[in-house]
Amino acid sequence: MSLDINQIMEIIPHxxxxxxxxxxxxxxxxxxxxxxxxVTINENFFQGHYPGYPVMPGVLIxxxxxxxxxxxxxxxxxxxxxxxxxGGIKSAKFRKPVVPGDTLKLEVEIVKIKGPVIxxxxxxxxxxxxxxxxxxxxxxxDK
Length: 143
Description:
Blueprint: H1 5-11, E1 23-28, E2 32-38, H2 58-74, E3 83-94, E4 103-114, E5 117-126, E6 129-141
Antiparallel strand pairs: 1-2, 2-4, 3-6, 4-5, 5-6
């Protein structure tokens, strides 16, 4: 199953300027998800993040992975309508700068579901090279 931007916004609550995924190519609800973020110079964070050397903040790369993971979780019938919040971020590593013109390929594998607590492993690559990785813990809450 693939999702366009409108379908993504039907699943996760994020909106501009915080919606950080553009397309979901594959989603296996509760298991894994693959999607993309097209990085453009028009992103509002580039105005103040290293002016003259625009680099996407690592924390926003992790947030993009989390939003993508949220689509895999909230695609499950039992979690529709919930809000996924960060419960933790472990082992975050940043391997290369992400700059305007890059397309982030994001992948999240859900490795553990225990009630409202879900753990996923995320990776972000650009042209086949790893840009970032992290273990993400989600806490599902009612709106």
